[in-house]
Design brief:
This protein has 17 helices and 19 strands. It is about 40% helix and about 20% strand. The chain is elongated. Strands 5-4-3-2-1-14-15 form a seven-stranded mixed β-sheet. The protein has a six-stranded mixed β-sheet with strand order 6-7-8-9-12-13, with helices on one face. It has a four-stranded parallel β-sheet with strand order 18-17-16-19, sandwiched between helices. By secondary structure, the protein is an alpha/beta fold. Bound molecules: nicotinic acid adenine dinucleotide, adenosine-5'-triphosphate and glutamine. It catalyses: deamido-NAD(+) + L-glutamine + ATP + H2O = L-glutamate + AMP + diphosphate + NAD(+) + H(+).
Length: about 550
């Protein structure tokens, strides 16, 4: 009976649909494990397909190709350690989210997921059948219990595994980031360890997938809930954990403890990683964006420079007659500090031409929001033309406060393929700008220093679509707006509750109304990085045609 068990953990970044690429990554990790004498090399939930696949996994040809790729991997990884990898399984026409154990050239065991997450951004009940609770599998004489992700968020699967003889728990995950998630997972996993008295390995994937960012942060806990290894957040990482048999069961040797960054840094990293992976996984390497001299576009430019490299980011200043001299200066200073190219494309001539073209139709009407929005739409036309011409994907810059109340022009500044700040409230945008100016990390491709000029952070936000306009002409101050939105969106609070918390009734009712009537804009908006548990798109799915207005605040 062996007294040592070597487990190689592969915290890697798969790509949805890239079966060949994902299999190659798995095999490379297995080879690393073999070189270090591993008994088992472990990958994450649904690694072969990438995660989340959404309805792609319902396509029979994709299911069959994924299962065939796993069987091929068993053959390719025959001569060495066992390999554990997530993928789909089919039984009597039913589809399962499974974890395969490959050893000696064949599949020696499969484990299937029991608890299918079906809340927030998960729809697994739509995709998979819930399996019966299973027992452990054995590798080189050691019984391993593998609850798959959500299975470890509840006590029952783990309890069954302990009762049926599991000696070590290995949890493969596809667990997406939201603010504060590593701590939430740590507390849940400590509960599982305390309930069972077993050591537990929590193994999560990394990488961006559309709106979602998987943040790794894999960890190993010994009985008592002691953290003995912590893998980094957001980085790919392969490491080996050595377990030793003791009179009291298996114990992991202490390993590396990576630092989990605080929330502000983690949010920024999530934005950067999501842009890098969205571009890489959709086949783009270059970005374009409108740089206005305001804070939103400055932060998006910094995120893009950090994700893609400043040389791959084109900033475009598109001044109109209302663009102030300080906006021109600030945009220029920001692009220079970031090391990005800046082009200047005035929209005045195009604006005049559109005005003249529409003049007969608009004769006798007052100038107003229509003319303001034409400027925004002309910028959208120019930016998409540059995108088409040079193959640079357009980034759009609307923060969560603007997206919530519709303070953005549809088919105008909302144009774009991806929005890294879609889930970041305006009050956090200011903190993010300051944080980026004061910090630099080795994962940032952009330069260190004050990349967002101080004046951009301190001046009053303005859309500059008419003379002397500021955002506060149309909206309450951002600290008030964001606090109300935090209530209405993140907490689903009623109007009466917010009034009881001290907010002005009329203001709350106005924001509630704007929130509901802007649903159509969000429905047509670009995907963007998910940072909270109430991101617009999958976490919060509201109807577009909606007459509900909360009577509790009347
Ligand atoms: N339920 C619904 N389903 C489908 N479409 C609907 C709709 N309700 C209105 N619409 C359509 O939407 C149009 C109104 O939306 P939209 O055209 O966006 O125009 P709107 O929302 O009226 O105006 C844009 C707002 O964004 C502000 N803003 C802030 C910051 C920057 C920028 C910028 O552009 O740089 C703009 C600007 O000051 C203004 O308050 C209607 O004319 C109608 O065609
Ligand atoms: N003069 C401009 N040149 C280039 N892009 C512009 C210009 N004005 C607006 N845009 C684009 O439209 C977006 C929306 O404008 P908005 O005024 O809301 O944002 P901002 O200027 O970046 O930030 P803030 O509102 O805080 O000043 C900008 O982020 C930018 O991408
Ligand atoms: N893939 C899963 O089962 C993940 C579910 C779990 N609630 C998480 O977010 O981590």
């Amino acid at each position: 009976m062996a007294d040592v068990f070597r487990l190689t953990l592969a915290q890697l970044n798969p790509t949805v649909g890239d079966l060949r690429g994902n299999a190659a990554k798995a095999q490379a990790a297995w080879e690393q494990g073999r070189a270090k004498g591993a008994d088992l090399v472990a990958l994450t939930e649904m690694f072969i397909t990438g995660y989340q696949t959404q309805d792609l996994i319902l396509k029979p040809s994709f299911q069959q190709a994924a299962i065939a790729a796993i069987h091929q991997l068993a053959v390719d990884c025959a001569d060495g350690p066992a390999l554990a990898i997530g993928g789909p399984a089919l039984q009597e026409g039913r589809l399962f989210n499974a974890y395969y154990i490959l050893h000696g050239g064949r599949v020696t065991a499969t484990v299937q997921k029991h608890h299918l997450p079906n809340d927030s951004l998960f729809d697994e009940k739509r995709l998979f059948t819930s399996a019966d609770v299973h027992g452990p599998f054995t590798i080189n004489g050691v019984r391993i219990g593998s609850p798959i992700c959500e299975d470890a968020w509840h006590p029952d699967v783990v309890e069954t595994l302990a009762e049926t003889g599991a000696e070590i728990l290995l949890v493969p995950n596809g667990s997406p980031y939201h603010r504060g998630k590593p701590n939430l997972r740590l507390n849940l996993m400590i509960s599982r360890v305390v309930e069972t008295g077993l050591p537990l390995v929590y193994l999560n994937m990394v990488g961006g997938q559309d709106d979602q960012v998987f943040d790794g942060s894999s960890m190993v806990l010994n009985p008592g809930g002691h953290l003995v290894a912590q893998l980094p957040q957001f980085d790919e990482h392969v490491t080996q954990i050595v377990f030793r048999r003791t009179s009291d069961g298996w114990r992991a040797d202490p390993g590396e403890i990576a630092e989990i960054p605080p929330i502000g840094e983690a949010d920024y990293r999530a934005c950067v990683l999501s842009v890098a992976d969205y571009f890489a996984k959709t086949g783009f390497s270059k970005a374009v964006l409108g740089l206005s001299g305001g804070i939103d576009s400055a932060i998006v430019a910094a995120i893009a420079a950090d994700a893609l490299g400043p040389e791959n980011v084109r900033c475009v200043m598109l001044p109109s007659e209302f663009t102030s001299a300080h906006s021109l200066e600030d945009a220029e200073k920001c692009a220079r500090a970031l090391g990005c190219r800046l082009d200047t494309v005035p929209i005045t001539a195009a604006q005049k031409a559109v005005g003249e073209t529409l003049a007969p139709l608009f004769a006798g009407t007052d100038e107003g929001i229509t003319e303001e929005n034409i400027q925004s739409r002309l910028r959208g036309v120019m930016l998409m033309a540059i995108s088409n011409k040079y193959g640079e994907m357009l980034l759009t810059t609307g923060n969560k406060s603007e997206m919530a109340v519709g303070y953005c022009t549809i088919y105008g500044d909302m144009n774009g393929g991806y929005n890294p700040v879609k889930d970041m409230y305006k009050t956090r945008m200011f903190l993010t700008a300051r944080w980026r100016n004061e910090n630099h990390r080795d994962w940032m491709k952009g330069p260190a220093g004050e990349v967002i000029p101080e004046r951009i952070i301190t001046k009053p936000p303005s859309a500059e679509l008419r003379p002397d306009q500021t955002d506060q002409d149309s909206l309450p101050p951002y600290d008030v707006l964001d606090a109300i939105l935090e209530g209405l969106v993140e907490r689903e609070a009623s109007v009466a509750e917010l009034v009881a918390e001290g907010f002005d009734r009329d203001t709350v009712k106005k924001i509630e109304h704007l929130l509901y009537i802007a649903e159509y804009k969000r429905f047509q908006s670009a995907p963007g990085t998910r940072l909270t548990q109430k991101a617009f798109w999958l976490d919060r799915r509201y109807p577009i045609a909606n007459r509900w207005r909360d009577p509790s605040g009347a």
